[in-house]
Hints:
By secondary structure, this protein is mainly alpha-helical. Helix content is 67%, strand content 4%. Mean pLDDT is 85; it is low at 234-248.
Amino acid sequence: MTQEPLLGRDQECEKLDALLDAVRGGESRVLVLRGEPGVGKTRLLEYVTAQARDFRVARVTSVQSEMELPYAGLHQLCAPMTDRLGQLPPGQHDAVRGALGLGSAHAPNGFLVSLGVLGLLSEVARDQPLLCVVDDAQWMDRASMQALAFAARRLVAESLALVFAVRVPEEEPPVGTEPMGLPELLIKGLPERDARALLRFVLPGLWDERVIRRFIAQSRGNPLALRELPKMAASVDRSGGFGLPSVQPLEDRIERAYVRKVGGLPDRAREFLLTAAVEPTGDPALLWRAADRLGVGTDAAKEAVAAGLVKVGDRVRFFHPMVRSAVYWAASAEERRSTHRALADVTDPATDPDRRAWHAAHGAAGPDESVAAELVRSAGRAQARGGVAATAALLARAVELTPDLVRRQDRALAAARVTHEAGNPELALRLLSLVETGSLDERRRGEVDLARARIAFTSDRGSEAPGLLLKAGGRLAAYDAALARDTYLEVVNAAIFAGPQAYDDGQYEAARAARAIPAPQPPRPSDLLLDGLAERIIDGHTAAVPGLRRALRAFAEPGLSPEEGLRWLWLICVTAVGLWDHETMSLLGARHLKLARDAGQATALPFALTMRCVVHVLDGELAEAAALAEEVQTVAEAVGTAAPIYGALFVSAWRGQEAECLELSERADEGLELRGEGVGPVVSRWARALLYNGLGRYEEAARAADLATREYSRLEMGIPVWALVEYIEATGRSGAPGQAADALERLGELTRASGTDWASGIEARSRALLSEGARAERLYRQALDALGRTRLRGESARAHLVYGEWLSGNGRHHEARNQLRTAHGLFDTMDMQGFAQRAARELRALGETVTTNSDDAASDLTAKELQIVRLVREGLTNTEIGARLVLSPRTVEWHLRNIFGKLGVTSRKHL
């Protein structure tokens, strides 16, 4: 048969040729071909594959029925590359092996799998350029798509191309099932001239011109429609008869045309096609076994092949995915079930138990415990391979097939938990409703309440979550004391995020309830934390300090389990802030970050990075803090989640970057409206207060700081307390110190009880701002001494600044110059330019000439290059840097070459 020409695609082919040329030159490229069914996406994939003769080519064709099989697509793509797995770091190596079903000591973490796929593709591309093509990507299983989209977003210089073909969705696709946020090329119908040429090629001979025009108009230039619809048109239409235009969508008309074509085949040929449509792997041996069981012989297969609908070779391939869909849905429900049962019978339970269970489930006409139990076992295997979405789908189907009510409730509850973890809260809530269809004991109802509360917290972190968690804890208290106590600790955590609106009622009730449940002996670190926080909430900060310090020591113990650390270290770090314990905060923040990195836990990592970012800011290491804030965005972007912006907000406020700080501040304010995250506006107002104090705009600083604390009847630890400090400085500097008396009293209650140098220094500095004469000078010197014993360089520099300003105002200019020079030097070195400019203004007013430090070579580096320089200085390898920054090692190499050129160095040692 003559090969059909690739008409009307010159521009698309040029883009694909340019993509391949860029990859040949050492770059990486990603492209998503998006268009309606039949528009020619697959033909363009065939074109780019044919042009890539000097490439290694890896292909994936996704099938709708495999969407729930975890890493099915990744297995197609990466199974031939497993000889390179040894080049990956151990965690990534183990994760990818687990995802591919090659055996792993742990359930593969999705983040580590994604990192491993990025590294694996990069390694394979070292030998020769690599082209990966994914057809019908909208049907790829979620776990595989997340890994490939992750890799695609991080490609830079790996000699690698990823090309996806995706249908234009008729409705919003499920999260994670499409390569979103990547460069796209919309594939449209052919122009009229090319459509006419294709139509003449497909149907040579004399045709009425009116018919030609009508076919072109109705097809909208869709190549598949141009090929298929005329073949199936009624004779009156072919001869130029007049008829009403179809109002059916084009996709429906093409599929109906295939349905009619299939309907014209003999029964046995249709049965063969249905068997091929139901069997998604394209395995001929499996197809023949199922056909034999159904009594379908080879003659039926020949008739189906002769009709041009399917090809049987080393794989079974349909002419177009729409043919498979038409065949499947044209069959009756019983015909489909019967075929699924046959395929279940012939699928090897030892080598492919999950696909066998899935076929058996689709073959079941009603509830069937044996099939449901096999689905549950498949769900367990899917979870062991890290396929959370697949686990959820298998459990949800098992729920439908479970005849016993109590067992169905158990499975629905398990399915709801996993479905929530898979990122589908709506389905999780529907499954919880199934749990509630029958009578529930108090324990089960508590577990349902807890699941609902956790969904509410992760969905919006709003004010609803603390109350729901409180209710769940109350129901669980009589049945599972440890779980109830953990739930009450979750109330405290959720209330912090919810902000002042949820603080009082939720936390107070949780604290009272926690006191009614004695901690186990010996207590877990989380029990010590809960008891200490409960005492703070009920009896006040001073009474709680000893208990909270015991909790800090427990979390600092080397034997702390990774599970407990990952779950609670963020909250214990907030507690360390509340106790003004910078040393423990730094230690535990570093531990949290290491645990999150080692576990590859993408959900915990942004929060661990943010806490570590705060430590660097307090230490005056703004460059390091900025690098971590950038990494927060990198990790969140890589996995497609919303990133906490608080680290970046800290950095911009201390740097005095007004435009950036205000933009981030507005985004934090939006958190309340979008997610009910009431702590966002509190952090936003504190950051603006700090910014404006640095810039010397004290009235604006005072207004922002006042708003940050106004709604709290009892201050939460951390930012709300820091806002008091900004309010005191702003009012003291603006000439209205009397307004800050109440704020100073509230601050003193918290700092005196903690008694650390950090607390003592901040209190002394704040009191000095509101004092006069010898008492003020004594307090300024106390602040300098106390803060000088800490690593809090920014706060120490601020003490020098305000003391210098006070000395200048009292006419002691020589002493003022010394303090202001020290402050300016510190601020300038730390890149705290807002405060540096404030100090410079005071020095100029005293007749001083002010100079600033600069590093011209470093200023030429991009933010990413600065991150890499810092990590090289820490002694990390390219592979370790790549894992830290979510880049392939080859991209790190590429960045290093650029860095060497800009800085004029020739080695890592020189760097």
